[in-house]
Amino acid sequence: MAGAWVALALTLKVAGWATFLNLFLGVGIGYAMARWRFPGRDLIDAALTLPMVMPPTVLGYYLLVLIGTQGPIGAWLLQHFGIRMIFTWQAAVIAATVVSFPLVFKAARAAFETVDPQLEDAARSLGISETAVFFRVSLLLAWRGILAGLLLSFARALGEFGATLMVAGSIPGKTQTLSIAVYEAVQAGQDDTANFLVLITSITCIAVLLAAGRLVPGRVPQRH
Amino acid sequence: MTTELLRLVVKTLALALAAGLSFAAQAADLTVSAAASLTNAFKDLAPMFEAANPGTKLQFNFAASGALLQQIDKGAPVDVFVSADQATMDQAQTKGLVQAAQRRNFVSNTLVVIVPASSANAPKAVADLTQAVYQRIAIGLPASVPVGRYTKSVLEAAGHWAAIEPKMIGANNVRQALDYVARAEVDAGFVYATDAALMPDKVKVALTVPTTTPILYPVAPITASPNAALAQRFVEFVGSAPAQAVLARHGFGKP
What we know:
By secondary structure, chain A is mainly α. Chain A has helices at about 1-35, 40-55, 55-65, 70-80, 90-115, 115-125, 130-160, 160-170, 180-185, 190-215. Helix content of chain A is about 80%, strand content about 0%. Chain B is an alpha/beta fold. Chain B contains 10 helices and 10 strands. The interface of A and B includes residues 169, 170, 186, 188 and 189 of A.
């Protein structure tokens, strides 16, 4: 059963990193898409949302082809740094990040779009820098929506299975997350282990949802 | 307007569901759960069996023998079970899932070590796999994959398991181990000779590994099968001369 706690710690680590990366990627790209008009914007939006609707195995295959030792990125990493991405926990982070990215991106874009541009203009007219406008006006007003997206993405990353299994494999203590450990225990007929893992997973998910209810504030702090 | 739309959606769903259910169980469907290593050979056998038994449709379910056993144990509607080792079939027999009287071995196989075709290294003995150039070795998960169990027993007998286990990249079935080597994500892998022969341009066989127990594939009808006669015919068919010829072409040996 000790293996289950290792799997839980690894799952939290992978989901945590994925959410951390998505905080920057999702918020940055979400802001850009909400504020800037450029040709092909809808196409890019669709492409960035794709991981949400595409089967994880398809994403896993794309990643395998890209970061595998024979793929363009993987071959480059191997040649220049001697790094092999596949079967590492970092590969699991990449898979979880890609899969949960649209949840942050979509939430951030929608949240930024609800921010009244006049408020941003008013701040600019008062002479503060663009960076300050972003942090003190746009981000502050959009924060609640972004936080909801981040929590959803953390929950999605916790349960990620298909793409992770394809690029990170199932190495106990290294890349074997809870969902993959459950799969393997069931395949091997180890029902006792499976029961315990499922129990831990369920409790973790409920805890995340409860935390989400607490963390997302009912009201946005307003600054006048 | 909205109600009408909703009604339409519900009707469509109900129709789709009814259609799905009526297709789910046809009288002459025979479901065969077979070890992953048999995938290509069995797909070639299907038209022969279907031609000899008009109106019959073969459905295959390929996976690691251990995973198939679990599905059958949990009540999966399967008619014939084919495993890649005796241990898995023994478990099925102990649980009363298969008809022991009709169980028979119909092919044999060989364990080999493969390396990516692009690899500069090739082990000359299993002991070489303990060297540092072999950092990752694909091995079927011994808990559910027979090829992993054969590998583990060979390595244990040779006293190398402790050194090689930390390098192990577990595969959920033998074909996954083959794929890992073909993509050069691992430095070596243990598969059957029949699997290695599928990708001669991507993997090369470094050595043939003698196993402590011979690799024999047993086949048996499932006790709970509603198509007992047809299941029995399939068990006989895989042992027949024409079927054996196809299996031999895929590299399987006589039992």
